[in-house]
Every structure is written in structure tokens, then in C-alpha cells.
Amino acid sequence: MTLLSAVETAVEPETPPRNRPSAARRVVPYGYLSPTLILIVVLMVVPIVMVIGYSFRDNVIVQENSVFAGLANYSKVLTDPDFLVAIKNTAVFITVSMVAHLALGLAFAMMLNTRLLGGVTKALFRLVYILPWLFTIAVIAVIWRLLVDPAGVLNYVLQTLGLIQEGVDWLGDPSKALWVVTFANIWSGYPFFMISLLAGLQGIPHDLYEAAAVDGANPVQRFLHVTLPQLRPVIISMAVLDLIWTSQQFALIWMMTGGGPLNATEMLSTYTYKQAFSEYEFATASAAAVIVLLLTMVLAFFYVRQQRER
């Protein structure tokens, strides 16, 4: 009896087989996701497919019977001098804005993270620095149009200081309009970078700075070898996002200059809009939109890849 009891104890009891979820239970998660999926399909997938289809046809929307044009619309867009100017202006606009956003955002974030300022002073500076982010694009465009008007505040200050003799038409001068619009975009966008980088700075362990100081590193070396490496994931993510967002900037440019004067501030977004709703060349506008979509997808690919590596 003792041996038989030992054998029965050694044998593990069989676990009951798990019941496989029924077909109805497997469908339940998709039921919860269905409203979002339907919205994505209706509001994103269908319009994108329609625009791609329009880009390969001629006389779309304005005529009932459109004809297949192949790559003619793409060839027309890529050889259009206005489109080439828009690409150059967009490249300058994006590059200067991104570099300035990161530089200003990091500088202000480090100032707000320093221990040299008191709590009240930091709170006041945070309120002032975050104000541009609270305004809508329409308000920002109106503010800057009033500031740079020939009879505006900027010219008044410069004349008072004796730097200019008469009012300058900042948005009417082709050599200055692009830089004014870029500066307005920088002013409206740097608070987001400041907040993100400030959060990154506050997440750096203070022990790293103490260890670097013990090793004899000066403030510049601590910034280069401690701060920047720790902020590298945040900086890369913000830079890629800024490339995507700035390349699609439309409202600020349209409300300030409308792409003028003389195409000085023409961007890919304003070029596409004009082709569709000013020239009524919807096929050409669709081709330009597809090109912008491809460029944005390339940037989005690098962003997703960076996030996966992180």
C-alpha cells in the first residue's frame, strides 16, 4: 500500500484542456475597433485612393468624362518652375525652422531647469515662453501681419532707434518675406520643443553630473558628454516630427502672404492649394499632393524606425 500510494502521488494530475474561444468571442475585439477603423477608412484611406486616382487622369472633377493621362500630370508638376521654387522655399523654411526650434527650445529648457532661478521666476518665465503655443495659427498670422506692417510696431521701434529711415514693407519685399514667415513659424513652434526638452532634462539623473564633475569635466564638457547624449532620443524624435509638421504648414503662410510676393513664400502646400482652387487644375493638384504624400511617408518611415530602435 505504501508503494502504491507513492506511485499515485508521483503521477501529476491531468490539467483540463482549455476551451478555445468561440468565433463570436474572437470577433468581439474587432467590434470595439470597428468605429475607429471605419472612420480611418472613410476619412483617410478613401480620400487618399481617390487623389491617387485623380493624379493619373486629366480633366477630373471639372468634366464628367475624364481621360487616363498616365504620368503626364507628374511630369507637368515636376517641370513646373513654380513647383521647383516651392520645393526650394519649403526646404529653406523647414531647415531654418527645425534648427531654430531645437536651439531655442534647448536654450530655454536649460534656463528653466537651472538651479540659479527661483521657483517664482521659473513660473513667470514658463508662462511667458509658452504663450505662443496657446495661440491659434490664425491669431499668430494676424499678430505678425500687424507687427511687420509698414506702419506697424516693428518699423516704429526701428525708426525710433535710428536703424531705418522709413517704414519697410517686410511682407511685400520678395527678399524679406520668406524670412519673416519663417521667423513667425519659429516663434509659434519653439514652446513645444522647450516643454519636451525640459521634460528630458528633468529626467537626467543628477548623479551623472556629479560623476562628471568629480572626473574634472567643466560645464561645457558636461553638456557635450552628459546632457546631449541623454537628450539624443528626444532630440531625434522632435526633429523628425518637426520635419513632418513644418512641411505641411499651410495656414500661417496662406494668411500672411498667400505664397507671394512673386512666389517668394510659395510652399508645396500653397502650390497644391492654388492648383486646385485657383487654377482648377485638380489633376495637377492631385499629382502634387501625391508627391508631398510620398515625401511625408519617407519622413514618417524614419520616425517609426527611430521609435522602434529606441
TrEMBL record:
Coiled coil: none annotated. It comes from the Bacteria. It is found in: Cell membrane. Its main location: membrane. One of its GO terms (cellular component) is plasma membrane. Residues 87-303 form the ABC transmembrane type-1 domain. Residues 1-21 are annotated as: Disordered. GO terms for biological process: transmembrane transport. Pfam families: BPD_transp_1 (PF00528). It is a multi-pass membrane protein. PROSITE patterns: ABC_TM1. InterPro entries: MetI-like (IPR000515), MetI-like_sf (IPR035906). The chain crosses the membrane at residues 30-56, 91-112, 124-147, 177-199, 282-304. Keywords: Cell membrane, Membrane, Transmembrane, Transmembrane helix, Transport. Belongs to the binding-protein-dependent transport system permease family. This is Sugar ABC transporter permease. It comes from Paractinoplanes rishiriensis.
